[in-house]
Structures are given as C-alpha cells and as structure tokens.
Design goal:
By secondary structure, the chain is of the alpha/beta class. The chain has 2 domains: about 240 residues, QueA-like (3-Layer(aba) Sandwich); about 80 residues, Beta Barrel (Thrombin, subunit H), CATH 2.40.10. It is about 20% helix and about 30% strand. The chain contains 7 helices and 17 strands. The strands form 3 sheets. A 9-stranded mixed β-sheet has the order 2-1-17-16-14-3-12-13-15. A hairpin with a 4-residue loop joins β9 and β10. The longest helix is centred in the C-terminal third of the chain and has 13 residues. The protein is globular.
Length: about 350
C-alpha cells in the first residue's frame, strides 16, 4: 500500500481560509460506507440522518494558543515554536521552525522575559524539548503571548480565536482543533439530544500525530506520534451499554474515533482510562467500536485520508472527494463536512 495511492488534485481556491459566519451552514456530503453512494446536504440537516438512540461521541479538548514567536537570547534571531505536549512538569515537546538554529542550551525569549524556553533535548524532524520559565499560570501566559496554531495552508488572519475552538471544548492541551466539531453550535447539539440521541465526550489532545505528513513510500512503515487521550468511566459504561443494545456509535472527528479505538478491548468494549495513543488507522483496520464518522475533508496523502478510507474504502472516498470538488465544497479545517454511515 503506497502513500501515493491516496493522492488527489485539489484546486487551491477550495481550501477554506476562514470559517463561515454560522457554524451549521456548512455543506454536508453523505457517504454510504458500503455502497459508495453519496448525497448532498447541509450540515444543519444532519439530525434528519440520525436516529433516536444513536450515540454521538465528541472530543472535548481545548486548543492552546500554542504558536509562539520569540528571539534567541544570544543572537536575537526570530524563532517560531509550536507547543505540542507537556512531557514532565514545565518541560514541553515542541515543533520548531528553523530548528537547526536551536541546540541544547539555546534560550528563546518571548514577550521580553514573560516566558523563556531553554532547549534541553534535540530530536529528529524539527522536534525539541524545552524547559519553560515563567511567573504565574502558564495558560494565562500563553493567552497573552501565543497565537492559535492555524495550519500552514490557512493564510488569512483569524479574527475571532473561538472560531478555531469547538463550543464544547473543556480540557486544555491541543495544538490543533478537532475540526469536525467546529460545525456544531450549542443549540444544535441540544436539538439533537432532544431527539433522543445520546451525546458523550472523550478527550484527545491533538498533536503532531494527527497532522504530521507521511514521509515514507510504504504506508505500513509510517509511525504515528503519540497523543494523550482519556475516556471517563461514565462514557465507557454508556458506550458499552449502547454496543450491547446494538445502537450506532458515531464518532465526531477522527480524533474521537482514534480515542475510542485506542481504548477498545479485544471483546469490542471501551475501557475507561487515559494513556498515549499512536494508533494508525488505514485500510485493513478492523473497527471494534465505531459505526459511523462525521469528519471534514482531508489533505492528499495524509493519515486522515487513510483513516476515512479504512471505513468506506479508498475508491469510495476518492470518488466522493471528486464529487465534492465538482460541487465546490470547501476543504480542510474551516471547510465542509462528510457523514460516513451505512444508513441514509
């Protein structure tokens, strides 16, 4: 299985640069995972394709303003750092632009001393570990100094930070948004819940594992970067009961899916707890928990495109993507949505 097998050509004009004024106004492409049949809809009509007793599982992670631009203390050179995950207290793994300039012992100053970061470990592919020095509460410091870590294909400035945040975000820790959830409003979630759909939450802090590009020719040689996830006892219990009752489990976003499948037991149940997931889902993967997925449209040759291909089949996905391109859907983080299911 080759990385190039998951390629497609996307007109640059279809890469969404800004969020829509109203979250639920996105287009929605319905895709039957078994037949490849597709249908065009609007996201605010999603509830027509959900059933009483379905279970929607959402990722309640909160995106940190984790993009920082500082100056090297010794030379004054500008350095951009993206905080990925806290390894030990006040020591963070980060992705660094111009990383060759950052060696062990390098100190970067942000905000004229409000935050200083000392490199304590050099890793491959632009990764570094930094010891953070600051006064007060780190998240408050980041709110002052940091920017939302928008993907590199977004060139427009984000006017409202909360538009790169789901309305149900709760646990701080992500370096990118779980973008499928950006389409929901609180009112729409309440409407769906009032139908009898059960809404549950898991947490996966989105890091390098989700958006790191593949640099291997053979898909099976790719190694996912670890990301922290957590499933509460209540959520696990309710999902397991739903499985016993033959109710549909629908993940909202690839991160929710990866959390559920990472926490799955061999008996097809979800185990409560937390840990680090390096689960790589690609065609041939056997799903234990999920029955459907609400997701955005993903980059060519990405692990996320491989994940949706594992659910619906590569050719069905690529056909649906061509239809979306023809219909001028908006792609990627601020783009439109797809509901992969077996019933509509």
């Amino acid at each position: 299985m080759k990385t190039r097998d998951f390629s497609y050509t996307l007109p640059e004009a279809l890469i969404a640069q800004t969020p829509l004024k109203n979250r639920t106004d996105s287009k929605l492409l319905l895709l039957n995972k078994n037949t490849g049949h597709y249908q065009h809809e609007q996201f605010h009509n999603l509830h027509h394709y959900l059933k009483k007793d379905d279970v929607l599982v959402l990722n309640d992670t909160e995106v940190l303003p984790a993009r920082l631009i500082g100056l090297k203390e010794d030379t004054g050179a500008e350095i951009e750092v993206l905080l990925l995950s806290e390894k030990t207290e006040n020591t963070w793994e980060c992705l660094v632009k111009k990383s060759r300039k950052v060696k062990v012992g390098t100190v970067i100053d942000f905000g004229e001393g409000k935050l200083k970061m000392e490199c304590v470990a050099v890793k491959a592919e632009g990764l570094r570990d930094f010891k953070l020095h600051y006064e007060g509460i780190l998240y408050e410091v980041l709110d002052t100094l940091g920017e939302m870590p928008l993907p590199p294909y977004i060139h427009e400035r984000l006017e409202e930070k909360d538009r790169y945040q789901t309305v149900y975000s709760k646990h701080k820790g992500s370096a990118a948004a779980p973008t499928a959830g950006l389409h929901f409003t609180k009112d729409y979630l309440n409407q769906i819940e009032a139908m009898g759909v059960e809404i549950l939450y898991v947490t996966l802090h989105v890091g390098l594992g989700t958006f790191r590009p593949l640099k291997v020719e053979d898909v099976t040689n790719h190694k996912m970067h670890e990301e922290y996830y957590s499933v509460s006892g209540t959520t696990a219990k309710r999902i397991n009961q739903a499985k016993k009752d033959n109710r549909r489990i629908i993940a909202v976003g690839t991160t929710s899916l990866r959390t559920l499948e990472s926490a799955a037991t061999q008996k097809g149940m979800v185990e409560a707890g937390s840990g680090l997931s390096d689960l790589f889902v690609y065609p041939g993967f056997s799903f234990n928990i999920i029955d459907g997925l609400i997701t955005n449209f993903h980059l060519p040759e990405s692990t996320l495109l491989m994940l949706v291909s594992a659910i619906a089949g590569k050719q069905n996905i690529l056909n649906a993507y061509q239809e979306a391109i023809k219909a001028e859907y908006r792609f990627f983080s601020f783009g439109d949505a797809m509901f992969i299911t077996d019933q509509f």
